[in-house]
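F.,

This is the one I mentioned.
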């Protein structure tokens, strides 16, 4: 991730379980954490695990009612197909990767926490605050997926300790996330010179989201109010430009995961090592024939195909329609000589927000792309604030004004398209505004709006299963999530 890492690139090192164990005699206080640069390098390693968020992005769409899994055939990336069909179990490889990669990030953050008193330097409070933000981000993903998860915060853990640790109730995990984010806000700046670094606004926004997921509406409204009243962010005037490669880290970006090209390429066996955005390549259409006929695009693997029912929700006057969905048949009609492969679960639509353009990707452009992932946008904050304030007993803002700001931008400031700020309308606006960005499934689960997800069992699928191998590594002492077998 070039913007965050600078000249130093630290790749993901996939571990066999959620514990980050160092070999004896390596990476200890005798040869590391003896200077500010040691801490800075370790922090870069903690940031680097953000790159694996591509998987959460994809799963957040295909598990929802927004998209089908797609791909070349019904068995292509079977673990994703199973999640799309709600037939996944405790052996699902994708879910294991989410668990493994998020805990790898937590392990790197905890390594810094373990030796935080080793050396003093002027930037240390800010560095530790960035580290707490990152650990909170990783833990939040885990709680969204799995509910109760082991909470490890003071440092790394030994093999023996791993066999005795238990799952922590998610309420306690949330409490720790809240505490850490509040602590982080005290030392983080509103602006960072280096794009991709955690800021005070990112911490308040993530904290508000954590509160919202727990139905703590007063607290959420207060956190979002701090972001809004900071005047650090504003909506990009033209929605169609938000996701362009040359408009990264724009004024609407509250927190953005940095990706790069030509630094470290991806391959299908070890996607987690890519410094590029793997999701974009997987979600783009598959062009065929002469490459000169493709226009500015490269081709992809046709996963996460948006369903027509979603496309039909948009008013024709909504500027987000053509900026969200790539209609390949319309495009092909405009490009003489262009051909394409329809493939599995073809709908005619692809995710236009994360299309693969012709870039110097290495070694395979289909699995690495330079477009950053907009993890938290200001419009997301405004809509979460509208939702929280609508249900808060002590609101901090006007839900109608917050909703109107997002909707007015979508309709080029034509206020005749405004709708009342009801909960149903706010949640619908979230779907329209954030389609293709990986938030939909988790929004549906937290608001109990899952009836439109094919195959969804409310007694089972609100959580994903704990990976079987993790239960075994913990000595088979953990209970599985309801509805799944070990």
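My design for it:
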């Amino acid at each position: 991730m070039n913007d965050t890492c600078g000249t130093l690139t630290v790749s993901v090192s996939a571990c066999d379980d959620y514990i980050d164990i160092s070999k004896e005699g390596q990476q200890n206080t005798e040869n590391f954490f003896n200077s500010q640069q040691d801490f800075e390098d370790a922090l870069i390693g903690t940031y680097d695990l953000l790159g694996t968020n591509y998987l959460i992005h994809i799963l957040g769409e295909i598990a929802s009612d927004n998209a089908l899994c797609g791909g070349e055939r019904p068995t292509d990336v079977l673990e994703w197909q199973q999640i799309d069909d709600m037939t996944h179990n405790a052996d699902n490889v994708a879910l294991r990767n989410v668990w493994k990669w998020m805990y790898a990030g937590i392990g790197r953050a905890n390594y810094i926490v373990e030796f935080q008193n080793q050396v003093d330097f002027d930037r240390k409070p800010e560095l530790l605050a960035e580290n707490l933000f990152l650990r909170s981000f990783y833990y939040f993903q885990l709680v969204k997926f799995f509910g109760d998860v082991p909470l490890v915060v003071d440092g790394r853990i030994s093999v023996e300790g791993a066999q005795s640790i238990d799952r922590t109730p998610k309420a306690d995990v949330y409490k720790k996330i809240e505490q850490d984010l509040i602590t982080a806000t005290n030392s983080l700046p509103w602006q960072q010179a280096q794009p991709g670094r955690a800021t005070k606004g990112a911490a308040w926004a993530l904290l508000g989201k954590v509160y919202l997921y727990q139905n703590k509406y007063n607290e959420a409204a207060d956190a979002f109010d701090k972001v809004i009243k900071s005047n650090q962010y504003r909506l990009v005037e033209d929605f169609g430009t938000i996701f362009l490669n040359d408009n990264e880290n724009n004024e609407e970006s509250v927190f953005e995961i940095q990706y790069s090209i030509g630094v470290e390429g991806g391959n299908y066996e070890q996607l987690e090592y890519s410094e590029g955005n793997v999701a974009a390549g997987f979600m783009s259409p598959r062009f065929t024939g002469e490459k000169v006929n493709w226009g500015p695009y490269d081709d992809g693997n046709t996963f996460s195909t948006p369903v027509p029912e979603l496309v039909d929700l948009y008013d024709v006057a909504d500027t987000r329609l053509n900026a969200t969905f790539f209609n390949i048949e319309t495009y092909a009609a405009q490009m003489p000589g262009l051909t394409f492969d329809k493939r599995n679960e073809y709908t005619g639509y692809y995710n236009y927000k994360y299309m693969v353009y012709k870039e110097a990707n290495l070694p395979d452009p289909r699995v690495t792309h330079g477009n950053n992932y907009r993890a938290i946008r200001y419009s997301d904050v405004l809509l979460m604030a509208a939702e929280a304030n609508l249900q808060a007993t002590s609101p901090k803002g006007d839900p109608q004004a917050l909703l109107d700001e997002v909707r007015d931008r979508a309709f080029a400031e034509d206020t005749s398209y405004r709708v009342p700020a009801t909960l149903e309308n706010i949640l619908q606006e979230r779907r329209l505004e954030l389609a293709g960005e990986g938030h939909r499934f988790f929004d549906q689960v937290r608001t109990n709006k899952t009836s439109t997800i094919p195959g969804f069992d409310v007694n089972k699928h609100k959580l994903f299963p704990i990976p079987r191998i993790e239960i075994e590594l913990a000595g088979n002492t953990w209970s599985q999530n309801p509805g799944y077998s070990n």
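Confidence is low (pLDDT under 50) at residues 1-25.

Talk soon.
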